[in-house]
Amino acid sequence: MQRNSWSVFLAVVVALAVLPSHVWAQEKVIKIGAIYPMTGRAGLYGMDSVAAMEMAMEEINAKGGVAGYKLDALSTDSKVKPDYSVRIAKRYIEEDKVHFLFGVVSSGVGLAVTEVSKQYKKIFIGTDHAATELTVDNFQPYYFRVSNNTFQSMAAGAIYLKELQAQKPWKRIAYIGPDYAYGHSQWNELRYCLDRLGVQYEVAGEHWPKLAQPDYTPFITTIMKDKPDILVSGFWGGDTVAFIKQAIPYGLLKNVLYFHPDAGGNYELMSSMGDELPDGLVLSARHHNNWPDTELNRKFVGDFFKRTGRYPSYAAEGAYAGVYAIAYAVEKVGNPDDADALVKALEGMKLKLPEDPEGFTSYMDPDTHQIVQMQAIGVTMPNADFPPAKKMLGNWKIYKAEDLLPPKEYIEMKRKK
Asked: What are phi and psi of 394, to 5 degrees?
């Protein structure tokens, strides 16, 4: 090397050596390992989740990242298979060296992946699945959920049914839901909450089709024979759409109040059914495009539409929240490598999210690692503001976040078992 070239090389090395540490740190990356279904009936939830995850990362990275780090993510199709998802999670940790496990739509998959999180002491941010087992029965310190669980939805549902009974007396209640943890959690928790509120009722039947059941006709005809006043549904995603479409020709929804307080009010139902969707169904979900009517929610929905050309399912807001939860924790700790310090940070998290109405901010319950949020239950009615949907939810009933948490005695009972 010539003398002049060597002098230039040394000058560059010296200059780089005295650069502020944050310039080097900007090249560091927070690695997220996302696991979502991308095909089948649950595929839309996965696609929406990945789109919202990427949207949140771009927003944060455009502002300089977090504590000198940029956010980046890997994403793999879970195929809604627990054993396959476990292999993905282990590969993410062992080979890709991710800092966070992330996502999951099915509670069955979530219950499998949380065991990997526990084994490797790697934080798992649950963004959509809702079985309460993950935060109560199977609680472990490295799992956090950033969307409402089934207990919160069923607590809101029980209050709604109690209020309804005072206005329009009903007595017989039936349930239909998928035959795995998510479906069973809802029914057990709804009855617990109804009993706790002193609501008097009779069970007119329990029905347990498999996930992605192709034909609901035998269940529909049996429910019609049982003649319940209220039919509580625990379906989600394409199963909700399929059941309602198959129930309409039988007239089932004209003779019973269809009540679906956890995942029934997803935009996928509105967009898939258009004018076919009956008025008067009572539904809720973990995020709504038209509630709350706040600047933050309008911006989230509008930005998602600009990005994808469609309005988001509720899964999208959960993934968006999950990225911001990671950013919150890393900002507090200063780096993504200290899992135990990140756990402490997440336990104290307060985060304003698109689904928060004015005057309320979501926060993490440190005893369960379950986010605490308000819930809105609405009724299907004409509304063409979010095409291709022709119906949306309205006549909202809003329930306080603190009223929806499982009581301490319930948590203690479940954990002892």
From this structure: -150, -170
Contact by Cβ (8 Å): 57, 65: no
25-54: pLDDT as tens digits: 447 999 999 999 999 888 999 999 999 999
Residue 2 lies in a domain: no
Determine how many CB atoms are found less than 10 A away from the CB of residue 19. Answer: 9
* 157 Cβ contact partners less than 8 Å away, ≥ 6 residues apart: 190, 193, 232, 259, 261, 262, 284, 377
231 and 380 in a single domain? The answer is yes
Sequence-separated (6 or more) residues with CB below 8 Å from residue 18: none
Residues 6+ positions from 140 with CB-CB distance below 8 Å: 114, 117, 118
Are residues 382 and 366 part of one domain? no
- Residue 41 CA to residue 47 CA, distance in Å, equals 12
Count of domains forming the chain: 2
Tell me, yes or no, whether 9 lies in a domain: no
Claim to verify: residue 412 and residue 366 sit in the same structural domain: no
Task: With a cut of 50, say whether residue 221 has pLDDT above it.
Answer: yes
CA angle centred on 48, ends 98 and 26, rounded to 5°: 40
Instruction: Tell me, rounded to whole angstroms, the distance of Cα 301 from its chain centroid.
Output: 16
Question: Helix, strand, or coil here: 384?
Answer: coil
d(CA 356, CA 358): 7
Interacting residues of 77 by C-beta distance below 8 A, sequence separation 6+: 36, 37, 38, 39, 46
Residue of 245, 315, 268 lying closest to 35 (CA atoms): 315
Domain limits for position 143: 22-149+293-372
Between residues 67 and 13, which one has the greater pLDDT?
67
Report how far apart, in Å, the C-alpha atoms of 154 and of each of 42, 51, 96, 219, 377 are.
22, 29, 38, 22, 11
405 and 263 in one domain? Answer: yes
Q: What's this model's pTM, rounded to 2 decimal places? A: 0.91
Could you report the per-residue pLDDT of 351-389, keeping only the tens digit for each? 999 999 999 999 999 999 999 999 999 999 999 999 999
Per-residue pLDDT for 11 more than 50?
no
Give the type of residue at 404. L
Please state, rounded to an integer, the average pLDDT across all residues of the chain.
93
